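Input set for joint prediction.
Command: fold jointly, output tokens.
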Amino acid sequence: NAGVTQTPKFQVLKTGQSMTLQCAQDMNHEYMSWYRQDPGMGLRLIHYSVGAGITDQGEVPNGYNVSRSTTEDFPLRLLSAAPSQTSVYFCASRGPGHNSPLHFGNGTRLTVT
Amino acid sequence: GQQVMQIPQYQHVQEGEDFTTYCNSSTTLSNIQWYKQRPGGHPVFLIQLVKSGEVKKQKRLTFQFGEAKKNSSLHITATQTTDVGTYFCAGLFSGGYNKLIFGAGTRLAVHP
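tokens >
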């Protein structure tokens, strides 16, 4: 049982480049989310999804797109990377009910130069 | 907007000393969760508090939820080097059950 799997682990982009961070979970969780972690700012919610075909914005959605075509996958797209998007990105999923805890992936460390 | 404030940002203790981190919200929380992140790792769920005034214990860790459900604390008794990491609180606000809002975290360093 792999849980939540994120790829890649590390990525370096140049300003203006695009890329997709991948996230997959094998726990049949309907809820999935993306957070970014920056020093002194904790984890900030970017986007989330409550099921296939349904996505919504979190606290800091600008510059990021998401889609949810399957229950298992929730990719995060950066269409035109900016240095301000240098961060560690975590994908997390949750079981049924809003009281269920989040299960995090191992993260993707992204640097935009 | 909905925010969860957490203090202190850093705490350095000698092994064996106690440690406490505090979280505060300006509005009532539906529940509060606590996570621990080891250096270089990902956040791992510790516990959830739901009821007003709730107190839960996990070995040397004691978690409290305030009577007004606006604040919470995590207390570690007699810290050990294995307690090193960043501790986050995260709150769910009524009507925002799909947005778990994290505090900034408290990074704990334990000196042997």
